[in-house]
Known about the structure:
The chain has 246 residues and is an all-alpha fold. It has one domain (6-237). The protein has nine helices and no strands. The longest helix is centred in the middle third of the chain and has 35 residues, at 78-112. The radius of gyration is 21 Å and the shape is elongated.
Amino acid sequence: MPPPSAKAITAIIALLIASVACMFLIDTAASAWARTLPQWFEDVFERITDLGLGGWFLFPFGFILLCLAAVTSPRLTPLTQGVLAMLTVRFGFLFLAIGVPGLFVTVVKRLIGRARPYVGSPDDPFIYRPFVWAPEYASMPSGHATTAASAAIVIGALWPKSRAVMWLYALVIMFSRVVVLAHHPSDVIAGALVGAVGALWVRRAFAARGLLFSAIDLRAFPGPSLQRVKVALREVVSKKPEIPPG
């Protein structure tokens, strides 16, 4: 498996520096700007920002995994079993690569205890109450940004043509978190970094086990064709369970 590229390492370092720099140079000004926005603008982004919740991805992916587990059976033909296995690996990757970074951030942000922009003085972005486990002090890193960045990476990894749309989605979600005063820009950058690194780590873990991605160049293996998926689904729906003898 190829080691992380110099470009990737440079990008991680750059994002870390950008997050720290924002704490000192941008966070206060960004919060002050967000407070001057018209109410209708904030209301629009209040609706948009909810699209960054992890449940929009984890619930459907988890439901599909449960359905695949429920219908998989050795009674099915080898072709159908193979199609179901390939789908299980794909949706398992999507679930883990979005869920693992999100779970990590859910815990870490409460341990760090950074106050959200609407807490305390708007001119002080350095209010911290570590270990209080309160939502008002769970600003760093942004969970929405983590979800959006990880989703953009993993969906783009499986369907490269979707990358532009997914990264547009991610940037809008990140921007919305600042607009609604839920996060400072530094929180958003940190969340995006965690989401990206976490998703890429899960991809490498799959590749190391020969699952879904090539260990040589980390490219995704071809998935089952739509025609094969249809054939497999027809068999699953129409297959009658065998009655054991005796």
